[in-house]
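dude i think i finally got it to work??
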Amino acid sequence: MGILSKIFNKIFPSSHQEAAPPPASGAPSMQRADTPAATPAPAPAVPPGQPAAFVAQVDVEAILVARAAQSSQALNWRSSIVDLLKLLELDSSLAARKELAQELHYTGDTGDSATMNVWLHKQVMRKLADNGGKVPPELRN
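look at this
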């Protein structure tokens, strides 16, 4: 799993929910014989003009503010990719950030970590916004 996927998993709760495994063959079923089989809930209706992948917008800022309030560290996640990764309890090492830069097709010099870090933060915020996250414009630009 790539670093961007790990970021998504921390912010978008439905992006990492796993379905319950089916019972092993021969295993007793927990369902009573006189009850109908459960049917999955219908998918939410897609609002007109929205892409099919649209379900609901996640307030990224609210999630991160709540995490920051519970953190024992003062983290500047609004502008620092290192602090954002720390807030999400992910690897924030230079090697991890270079891996993230590769995932996001960074074409600059990864030896210039300051420039790369600014670019990474903006790209991550844009990707979150592009994938259903409500991200304030000042965090995407």
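The chain has a mean pLDDT of 79.
im so relieved honestly
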